[in-house]
Write a structure and sequence with these properties.
rod-shaped; 1 helix; mainly alpha; single chain
Length: 41
């Protein structure tokens, strides 16, 4: 296995983690808004 292949696989992993983190943050923001509107009532 060439080093370049290994490097690209690691980059792919980082990209996937990055996307998962963004989705997690969006979900958290959604939950916070949801709870704030519930509490405001």
């Amino acid at each position: 296995m060439a080093e370049t292949m290994k490097g690209s696989i690691i980059e792919d992993d980082i990209t996937v983690m990055d996307e998962a983190l963004q989705k997690h943050q969006q979900y958290r923001a959604y939950l916070l808004r949801h709870y704030q509107t519930q509490l405001a009532k």
